[in-house]
Design goal:
The chain is an all-alpha fold and 129 residues long. The chain has one domain. 84% of the residues lie in helices and 0% in strands. The chain has helices spanning 2-26, 33-60, 66-95, 101-126. The longest helix has 30 residues, at 66-95. The radius of gyration is 16 Å and the shape is elongated. 34% of the residues are buried. The mean pLDDT is 95.
Amino acid sequence: MQKTFGIIAAFYGATAVILGAFGAHGLKSKLDTYQLEIFNKGVQYQFYHVFALLAVAFFAQRLSSQTLVFAGWSFTIGILFFSGSLYLLATRHLLGLDSMTPILGPITPLGGLCFIIGWILLLLSFRKL
């Protein structure tokens, strides 16, 4: 699992940098201030949870634990749902996805819930050190 979560963390880290730069330069003139804040919040939370995934990858060899594996998958899904839905919500007008708002809105808190579960599972895993 160490390799898997390391690869996921690196991928999400790279895409956070790309999306952050794209938001700052490519979307600045196309989105209003509120939409840019939403987009940037997605980047911010993606970065935070890349570090959580790196912790999972780092400790995977030391802690052979299903709890740690579930934490890693919770962070992975949380980034996809939370940050991904914020990216789509912020750019929905540009992408022609206005009709998706009722679907995308509820996905964001599900991603947040995955983050919370991931942190709790990481806590439980660290207690085994």
